[in-house]
Design brief:
Structural class: alpha+beta
CATH superfamily of the largest domain: Umud Fragment, subunit A
Number of strands: 7
CATH class of the largest domain: Mainly Beta
Order of helices and strands: HEEEEEEEHH
CATH architecture of the largest domain: Ribbon
Radius of gyration: 24 Å
Number of helices: 3
Shape: elongated
Strand content: 15-25%
Strand order of the largest sheet: 1-2-7-3-4-5-6
Length: 193
């Protein structure tokens, strides 16, 4: 069965619309992700999108739950809602973790009656000793999710060969195709004027 020219053109337009829709969704997703990551970096992780932050695990203190280069989603949480066993992300203020962002498990919770603040003892599940006590003011939030896709991308981007093969070359190829399509479209527009 032959498809007439009009039907073929209609099918091509339909495929083109689907491709454009997928392309727009991907561009929006990647742009929002990059914007979030950049805003967090430049705002010292104080910036949130709807109370959500992304953090990259940089040590083996939480293996096997979180591995190095995993990306975790952390949401704002009221200190009173934090429970023993929750994984929290906080800014270290003393000792080995001073000035670092840490994701560890809550082992103990105390309430300081004098200052009306919660204090937490945390520990990496792969660590031998507990962390120094932290205040509720140091906590960025509670870990709610480990992103498999972003974690895989994060790990892959650390390997130069994988980054070049699966990120740089496809991106360069995509940009080249878009540039060729723009030139073709301009030539077609000139031709049909």
């Amino acid at each position: 069965m032959r498809v007439n020219r009009r039907e073929r053109v209609r099918l091509e337009k339909k495929k083109s619309k689907i491709f454009v829709a997928v392309e727009v969704v991907l561009i929006i997703f990647v742009s929002l992700f990059l914007l979030t990551v950049l805003m967090q970096r430049f705002s010292n992780n104080r910036f949130t999108v709807g109370g959500v932050r992304l953090f990259t695990i940089l040590s083996e203190s939480m293996v096997p739950v979180y591995k190095v280069w995993d990306i975790v989603v952390v949401t704002d949480v009221k200190p009173a809602d934090i429970k023993i066993g929750d994984d929290v992300t906080y800014k270290g203020m003393e000792g080995d973790v001073k000035g670092k962002i840490v994701t560890h498990r809550v082992e103990k919770i105390n309430y300081d009656e004098e200052n009306h603040k919660y204090k937490f003892i945390t520990q990496g599940i792969n660590n031998i000793k507990q962390d120094a006590e932290i205040s509720e003011d140091q906590i960025y939030g509670r870990v709610v999710y480990k992103t498999l896709l972003l974690s895989a991308f994060s790990k892959a981007s650390r390997n130069t060969v994988i980054f070049v093969l699966f990120v740089f070359i496809p991106l360069a190829f995509y940009i080249a195709i878009e540039m060729v399509n723009i030139v073709i479209e301009k030539n077609d527009n000139r031709r049909y004027r």
